[in-house]
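G.,

No rush on this.
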Amino acid sequence: MKTMFPIFAAILVLSSCSTSNKGYRTSGHSYEYVGSRSDVATIAGGMPAQYGDATGGETNVASNNSEQTFKAEQMIIYNARLDVTVRNIDSANAVIVATAKKYEGYVVSVSNSYTSIRVKSENLDKAMLDLQSLGKVTSKNVYGTDISMEYNNLTIRRDNAYKARARYLELLAKAEDVKAALEVEKELERLNKEIDLLEMQLNNYNQQVEYSLINVSLTERTQPGILGYVFIGLYKGVKWLFVWH
């Protein structure tokens, strides 16, 4: 029992460290702006006073009570929405799929009314220009979401979990009986699950930052029937007579 006491004491100390040092908690900032990706970058990176900040937070994170200062890396997710009226939806979808491949992206979903693709974020403006040639654009929206605080919070938690796991592995090597080893392995299993979850969330954020999502809403132009073409012809004829007279 004397040999087990230091091990259990160390487990309790490590557990409290891994759970208490979780990093920063924040809801982040989300800005919406109708314009190009470069315009959005200006707003998200250096927020003008007239746009405001809903949370009152800042991008750079620093702790005055610690010797280590943590500077948050700016991570912004750029997405876009385009509403277009086209002559033929199938032809338009073929162009959208080709645009995704052209700008190093991929297709998320394709349907008769709503198609989504992802392109490399640095190519977002070029892809949007290409897609506007599909037909008549009725709505265009490009927006950025700053996830810097959330991303760095997850990074801190992941790094702390790795450090705690390394200490538990040292304890496991020093365990002198089965019961102590099982207790350490239980904590290691919990930490491994936490690390896997954090890595998955970070990878998801990296994917969204690297590849911008473009949602294209397609509406097919209504084609007039036989009588419709007759009335159109009459209208153009009457209009032509008024112009010449």
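When you get to it, here's the other one too:
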Amino acid sequence: MKYLIELLAFCALFTMMVKYAVRGGAIDGLYFYPKEVQDRAIAIGLTSREMMNRKRKEFMPLFFIVMTGALLFIIAYVNNVGDFRTAYLQSLLFLEVMNWYDGIVIDKIWVGFSRFWLLPGTEDLPYVQTWKQVLKKRSILSLIWIAGAAVTALLVVLMGYVLK
């Protein structure tokens, strides 16, 4: 039950970070969209490529720092883990849940069923991933998170040595 609550909190933080990215409207998250939608939005003057790239450069490092920091905090301090194996397994669990949460809840449900994400002038373009696209992307990311979890676990172990 404890892990379920932690996973729900981690996914809620993920959702809040996405919401923060688009606080000025969906156009602020144009870099999340397929290239065709990006090109159309830029062509019709909703934004510029420079602005889109600037918003991505502003948000993605913050997103990475916050989500990595939260993961390290949960594993090292909330769960008091100090060994590599346990840290790795918990990291893998959190990263995989986040991965599939992003694909299913964010991409398919929130983006797929909310008018918020529909950009004016791009209504004829597909911007919601198909199930096939979600499964392919999330499967590839699942493999990547196998290595990513090792990095996080190593950081947890190093934090234990440094902060003793």
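The chain has one domain: 2-162. Residues 131-162 form the longest helix (32 residues).

Enjoy the weekend,
O.
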